Amino acid sequence: MSGKRVTRLTPDQRREQLVGIGLEMLADRSLDELSTDEVARRAGISRGLLFHYFDSKRDFFRAVVRAACDRFTAATEPDPALEPVPWMRAFIAGFVAYVMEHRPVYLALVRGAAGSHPAVTDILDETRETLARRVRDGQRRLGMPDAPRLDLASRAWMAFAEEAVISWPAPNGGGRDGTDDTRDELCAFVESSFVSFLGLLDRPEALDRR
């Protein structure tokens, strides 16, 4: 008799598979609605076996959120060898591209997970801090002096950039269904806000007005 050979996954491969399924499911639901029963069914294993690889549902959620955040930070990390202006543009382009291409997952995490799942708040905060640190790095690379409120302002700019990318109107035509044109226009808009932000920090009196 001959039968279909079943490929056994190593524990690391199985964990990666389960996390990948969780990420796929976040494309059309919130973290609250992520069912470990369905994850196990899609993977062709029992729910009990899923918890052989993850200590708890909380542990699985954290693994999924960590994977999404790691992908996001990797996508927004410019080549450190770039000159200051290309470095800034690479950071912004990476941010815009990732959020546009993974908008449902990004919304599920940023808008949903932080409030409904305190267990992953530290991962999201760490990710935001990584991006805010890159904003501060960009300011220094461009030769701007340190400012007293740089940490606060960098987080505020990240919130602005995030809202701009999420709320940007959908394309109505253009290159490849408008995607390229829309992305370029959005990058230019976010970049102009970044430059304005740096200019404001370079004028302490503007921040210190009563």
Structure, described:
The chain is an all-alpha fold and 210 residues long. It contains 10 helices and no strands. Helix 4 runs parallel beside helix 7. The chain is elongated and about 55 Å long.
Sum up the structure in keywords:
210 residues; elongated; mainly alpha; disordered N terminus; 10 helices; single chain; 70% helix
End-to-end span in angstroms? 85 Å
In terms of DSSP E residues, the strand content is: under 5%
Sequence of secondary-structure elements: HHHHHHHHHH
Shape: elongated
Structural class: mainly alpha
Tell me about the biggest sheet? none
Please tell me how large the radius of gyration is. 21 Å
How many strands? 0
- Mean pLDDT across all amino acids: 82
Helix residue percentage: over 70%
H/I helix tally: 10
Name the poorly predicted regions: 1-6, 173-178
Write the layout of secondary structure elements.
Elements: H1 11-25, H2 36-43, H3 47-53, H4 57-75, H5 84-101, H6 103-116, H7 121-141, H8 150-167, H9 179-201, H10 204-207
